[in-house]
Amino acid sequence: MSSVPFTRTAEAPRAYAKVSLQVQSSKDLPEEEPINLNIPDNYVQWVLKNQKERPPITWQTLWGELNYLSLSILTIPPAMAIWGICNVNLHWETAMWGVIYYFVTGLGITAGYHRLWAHRSYNASKPLQYALAMAGAGAVEGSIKWWSRGHRAHHRYTDTDLDPYDANKGFWWSHVGWMLVKPRRKPGVADVSDLSKSAVVKWQHRWYLYLILGMGFVFPTAVAGLGWGDWAGGFFYAATARLVFVHHSTFCVNSLAHWLGETPFDDKHTPRDHMITAFITNGEGYHNFHHQFPMDYRNAIKWYQYDPTKWFIWVCSVLGLASHLKMFPDNEVKKGQLTMQLKRLKETQDHLQFAPDHNDLPVISWDSFREQAQKRALVIIAGFIHDVSSLIDEHPGGRHLILKYVGKDATTAFFGGVYNHSNAAHNLLSMKRVGVLHGGVQHGLDDKNIPPAQRLRVARYSELLSSSGSASSTACSDVDEETLLG
Questions:
Q1: Under DSSP, is residue 409 helix (H, G, I), strand (E, B) or coil?
Q2: What are the TM regions of this chain, as residue ranges (predicted)?
Q3: How confident is the model at residue 11 (pLDDT cuts 50, 70, 90)?
Q4: I need a surface site. Which of 240, 320, 334, 342 has the fewest CB within 10 A?
C-alpha cells in the first residue's frame, strides 16, 4: 500500500494540477485517455531495457538522493509525538478518542483509498465517498489519485523492478525505504483515468493540502480541546501520535504482509496471510488472498478472521451507503486453495520412498523362485515376489506364520484368509518387492497389487501426459534371473 503525500503528480494533466478559477462539469472536460492504452506488448522487458535506472546510492550521494518531503513527514511527527508523550499528560478521554480516530482514518485508507478507489471492489454513495476521502486525508498518505496510481502499479508489477515498493529489495525498503529516497526507477505504468472522472477524487486532489492539515491535525485536536479541554493532548496524542501509528500500520501491508505468514492461494509472489498482520493493518493482513483476488471487497473470507474493513463495508451496504460488493466466485477461490494444498502434498510425496515400479523389476519363473527361496525368505503375494527376511522377527503374528509361506504363494492368507492386513502392512510389504512372478498377476488381484499409499497420487500435468502417451512395457529381460534377484 502507498503512503506519504504528494499533492501533485508529474503524470497528472497540467490542467488538473492547477486550481481552476471556474468549476467545470465533467461533461465539459476532455476525456482522459488511459495512459497504458498504447504500451508495447513486452512493456516490462522494454522498460527494463530502455529506461535508465538511477545510480546506486552511496554515502557521498545520499544527501542529494533523499526525498525531503517524505523524510519530513516520516520523522517530524514521531519526534513531536515522543516529545508530547514525555511532557504532556494523557487523559483517558483523549486516549479513547485517539484510538477511535486511528480506526476512522485507517478505514479511510483501507475501505476508501484501497478497496473502493484503487480496486473498485464496491460502489459507495456520495456521502460515503466524501467521508472516506476526508478520513483518508487525515491519514496523510497522499491524495486518492496519487495513492491509487502507486498501488495499482504495485499489483501489476508485484516483485519486479517496476513495483514501487518491491518486497524483494528487503523489509526495510518496502516499509519506508522506498519513500525516503528518490525512486531508483520510474514505477510501471498504471492507468487511473477512471479516477479522473470522479468529482470526489478531483475535489480531494484540489484541496488536499488543506484537508491534511484540517483532518490530520486541526480536527482531532479540536475534538479533544472543545470536548474536554485537552488541547495539548489532542494535538500530541490524537493527532500526532495517532498519525504515526496509522502510517506504520499502512506500511506493514507493504512489508510485513509480504514477509510473515502462509501462501494458501498462490506462492508465485511474496504476499502472505497472517493474523498478526491483519490485527496491525485493519484487516489487510490476509494479503495472499488479496493479491490473488484483488477485486474482492474482502481480505478475510472466514467468519472468524479479523477484517474490520470488510465488516465496515458490509454494514455500509446494509445501511444503503454501499452496493455491488464484489466477491470472487467461491468455486475459483477453492481452486486456488486446492492448487496450493496439492502442491504441498506433492512436496511431501516427493520426499517419500514408494514401492519400485513393476516395470523395473525382473520377471522370475516359478522354478527360479522356488530355488532362490531356499537361500532366503521369499514369498509371493499378488504376483509379486517379496524378500521378507527382515520381517521374520518383527512380525506381530509370530515368525512361524511367515516361515510357513516361504517359497509359497501367500496371497490368500495375506488378504484376509489368515488376517486382513492394514494399509500400513500393505505399504511396508510393497517395499520388499524384488521381482514379478512370470505369468502375471492372478485374475481379480489387479486392484490389490497397488499399495494403498500409491492408489491416490499427486501428479503434475506433464507427468500425466508422459504416462498416458508412453506405451506400456512388459517387465521382461534377457539378463540372467540369478543376477537380478541376487
A1: strand
A2: 68-86, 98-116, 207-228
A3: very low
A4: 320
Give the N- to C-terminal CA distance of the chain in Å, as an integer: 66
DSSP for residue 273: B
Q: Is the pTM of this model over 0.85?
A: no
Give, in order, the Cα–Cα distances in Å from 130 to each of 126, 238, 323, 349: 6, 22, 16, 54
Q: Among 351, 391, 249, 348, which residue's Cα sits nearest to residue 308?
A: 249
pLDDT tens, residue by residue, 198-227:
999 999 999 999 999 999 999 999 999 999
Residue 428 φ then ψ, to 5°: -65, -40
What is the greatest pairwise CA distance in the chain? 106
- The amino acid occupying position 40 is P
| C-alpha torsion 143→149→150→154, nearest 10 | 150
The pairs formed by 262-265 with CB atoms below 8 angstroms and a separation of 24 or more are: 262/288, 263/288, 263/340, 264/288, 264/289, 264/336, 264/337, 264/340, 265/289, 265/292, 265/293, 265/333, 265/336, 265/337, 265/340
Count CA atoms within 13 Å of residue 250 on its CB side: 30
Q: How far is CA 187 from CA 45, 51, 177, 258, in A?
A: 13, 11, 15, 19
- Show the cell assigned to 322: 454501499
Q: Where are the alpha helices (DSSP H) in 282-417?
A: 287-292, 308-318, 330-350, 366-373, 399-403, 411-414
> 292 with 266: CB under 8 angstroms?
yes
Domains and CATH numbers, the chain: 14-338 (no CATH), 358-485 (3.10.120.10)
CB 216 within 8 A of CB 243: yes
C-alpha cell, 391: 520381517
Q: Read off the C-alpha cell for 463.
A: 507427468
Whole-angstrom distance, CA of residue 300 vs CA of residue 308: 9
Tell me how far apart the alpha carbons of residues 211 and 225 are, in angstroms, rounded to a whole number.
Answer: 19
**Cell (9 digits) for 309:** 474493513
For residue 156, CA distances in Å to 159, 162, 293 come to 9, 9, 13
